[in-house]
Design a protein that fits this description.
Strand order of the largest sheet of chain A: 1-2
Structural class of chain A: mainly alpha
Strand content of chain A: under 5%
Number of helices of chain A: 15
Distance between the termini of chain B: 52 Å
Radius of gyration of chain B: 19 Å
Distance between the termini of chain A: 17 Å
Shape of chain A: globular
Largest interface: A-B, 41 and 42 residues
Oligomer: heterodimer
Number of strands of chain A: 6
Helix content of chain B: over 70%
Strand content of chain B: under 5%
Helix content of chain A: over 70%
Strand order of the largest sheet of chain B: 1-2
Structural class of chain B: mainly alpha
Radius of gyration of chain A: 22 Å
Order of helices and strands of chain A: HHEEHHHHEEEHHHHEHHHHH
Number of strands of chain B: 2
Shape of chain B: globular
Largest sheet of chain A: 2 strands, antiparallel
Chain lengths: 367, 290
């Protein structure tokens, strides 16, 4: 009978990127999957087979790129809410900070993309530390309300900024380009975003394996115990805000470049609540969960919209509802779905994946 | 000076609606620990229920108001039994998410039933105004203040002097100890959520006399949070005082700065209160044991 190792037995493997042989399988599947996505959703051709609209559920690369941006945003929010236990509603404001910086540095001063992104990240860190200051005094709900207050205050500043430097219609952005490589097609955006996502995942994984990452979790689980072990809990909280807002500002700047045009209405509270929903549905405190949650939150409405497009308006009872109030129907279905997920899986979607992994490792023993 | 008094008076009128909504919010939070993000949507539901009763059933305002409040009570009971009851005891964030999902559902359903167009009440509170010492007092404002004051007084009497009120306060104080003493916690939760829904609906019915009935009415929920925090998240009189204060601050900043500044000023005040005195005006300091 084969001996199956459930636990890791040495520190080198625990800190390593690939902990088990099976990790390679996941990596290979992921790489092949990522390669297939632009072929299927972009070119629509794979091995001579043409994918019709209904075979790919009405998706295209634009939806997938938006989803990728949301994935990175959700991962960053999870650092704050999941790992450090700081409930923040200031997420959209950080996206706005990134977009503002990109508009100023990119559009006004004509900087190239990479320095703009770095500057956006640095400004994000600065603002993040300031916004994080209330977290030194407040916990839980009170912190949530304080960041909600900061959301409104920062959006007001954003609106003033927009009106002072640009037009009431919003901020314009140049085409993003790295050297002579212009990121101007959906496919190029896809690969750019995949690279960014990969860097963020790798960076966060290393961070969370380090002393600093563990101190985030310690500050979340028991701040008093953490400080008695010599951690500077206020500094840990601010560091978490800095990491999260760095990523969010960078992705905010990228998002601005991707859309090409943004205004203050792009950063509504609905957006914040959406990110919040992604993290919670996916499973708080898990990067994989944030990815799953973000994909579900952004892609499922597309699927639902597509599914209700071909409904005959004369279908009794629901026909008129589905065609006239498509958006509303989709949001009602999403709402019901969230309640059901949380009712039966309060740990979020990632718990399904964990169950599968666990069953595989324990095989052939019962799960 | 007359201008200032004018802003204060209209602020008190709007503020009494905020107070009513915040009261329901605090009541739900205090007894069930649910931070209800859908409070504003319940306000909107109240306004639309009143509209539905007037427009589709042809009722006058007072009858429509009573119908709307009754339906809102039933809605609250339904929410507690179907949505909240199986979820109680989950983490704070999970409950927040449940109420966010609820607000998505409510907004969708309201638009599906009533259509996306803005509405005005066919039968409103009596219009007109009187002038006292250079300050215009519209009858609508006065009626709103009066109705809100009566409603708040009724709730205060209910909490202070009735058996159910006492039990609800006990649940809010320490639900386990109250349950040991024989208080039916689930029933109290139902009552709390029903009362919270009814106060929100009442706020909606009053607000619909000042504003157009549209899904945007639910934004008032975002004002209920600062009002509740200002008064102290666990204090019912605090919610009312907080609501009035927020109403006056909002009107003053809208009047002296500009319309877009009102929300920001309110949230600036919220932030200051949170940083200086997180427990609010009436809140007791929380004792946390390690």
């Amino acid at each position: 009978m084969a001996q199956r190792s459930i636990m890791l037995t040495d520190y080198r493997r625990d800190g390593g990127l690939f902990q088990r042989r099976s990790s390679w399988v996941v990596v290979v599947v992921a790489v092949v999957g990522l390669l297939l996505v632009p072929a299927i959703f972009g070119d629509r051709y794979l091995f001579g087979h043409y994918f019709s609209n209904s075979e790919i559920l009405g998706f295209g690369l634009p939806q997938i790129n938006s989803a990728l941006i949301a994935v990175v945003g959700a991962i960053a929010l999870n650092v704050l809410v999941g790992f450090t236990g700081l409930v923040s509603l200031g997420h959209a404001a950080f996206l706005a900070v990134g977009a503002c910086t990109a508009a100023l540095a990119g559009t006004e001063w004509g900087w190239p993309l990479i320095p703009v992104l770095l500057l956006a990240g640095v400004v994000g860190i600065l603002v993040g530390v300031v916004v994080g200051l209330p977290s030194l005094r407040l916990r839980g709900l009170y912190l949530m309300l304080a960041t909600l207050a900061l959301h409104f205050i920062m959006l007001y500043i954003f609106l003033r900024f927009q009106l002072k430097f640009f037009t009431p219609a919003g901020l314009p952005f140049n085409t993003a380009s790295i050297g002579s490589f212009a990121v101007d097609t959906e496919k190029k955006w896809y690969w750019t975003l995949i690279v960014v996502l990969g860097l963020v995942l790798l960076g966060l994984r290393n961070l969370m394996k380090s002393r600093h990452g563990r101190s985030f979790i310690a500050a979340r689980d028991h701040d008093i115990a953490a400080s008695s072990l010599g951690m500077n809990v206020p500094r840990v909280r601010l560091a978490s805000f800095a990491v999260s807002s760095f990523i969010v500002s960078v992705i905010g700047a990228l998002y601005a470049y991707y859309l090409g045009h943004l205004s203050d209405t792009s950063f509504s509270l609905t957006l914040v609540i959406g990110y919040f929903a992604m993290v919670i549905i996916g499973g708080i405190g898990s990067t994989g969960g944030a990815v799953l949650g973000a994909l579900l939150w952004t892609l499922l409405p597309q699927v639902l919209t597509f599914a209700t497009t071909d409904v005959d308006p004369t279908t009794p009872v629901i026909g008129n509802m589905l065609t006239t109030y498509q958006g509303q129907t989709v949001s009602v279905v999403m709402g019901i779905l969230i309640i059901l997920i949380l009712r039966f899986r309060p740990e979020g979607l990632i718990s399904y994946w964990k169950a599968v992994v666990h069953a595989c490792r324990r095989w052939p023993y019962s799960p | 000076m007359a201008e200032f008094t004018q802003y204060v008076v209209s602020g008190l009128a709007v503020g009494s609606i905020y107070g009513l909504v915040a009261l329901g919010f605090v009541l739900i939070f205090k007894s069930t620990d649910i931070f209800n993000f859908a409070q504003g949507d319940l306000v909107m539901v109240g306004a639309y229920l009143g509209f539905g009763a007037m427009d589709r059933l042809g009722m006058p305002f007072w009858a429509a108001a009573i119908t709307a409040l009754l339906v809102a009570a039933l809605l609250g009971l339904g929410l507690q039994q179907v949505v909240f009851r199986p979820m109680l005891g989950n983490s704070l964030l999970t409950m927040v998410m449940i109420t966010i999902a609820l607000s998505l559902i409510i907004r969708g359903v309201v638009v599906i039933i009533f259509g996306p167009l803005d509405k005005t009440y066919p039968d409103q509170l009596p219009g007109g105004a009187m002038t006292v010492a250079g300050v215009t007092l519209s009858y609508v404002d006065l009626i709103i203040m009066g109705v809100a004051a009566v409603a708040i007084a009724c709730f205060t009497v209910f909490f202070q002097f009735s058996k159910t009120g006492l039990q609800m306060r006990a649940i809010g104080e320490n639900s386990e100890a109250a349950a040991v003493c024989g208080v039916n916690a689930n029933r109290m939760f139902s009552v709390a959520i029903m009362v919270g829904t009814v106060t929100a609906a009442a706020g909606g019915l009053l607000l619909a006399n000042l504003q157009i009935v549209s899904p945007q009415l639910s934004d008032i929920g975002l004002i209920a949070f600062p009002a509740a925090v200002l008064g102290g998240m666990h204090s019912i009189p605090g919610a009312v005082v907080g609501g009035l204060t927020i109403g006056v601050i909002g009107q003053l900043s809208a009047g002296y700065v500009d319309g877009t500044a009102a929300n920001v000023t309110i949230y600036l005040v919220l932030l200051l209160v949170l940083l200086i005195r997180p427990t609010g005006i009436f809140g007791a300091r929380e004792v946390v044991r390690v």
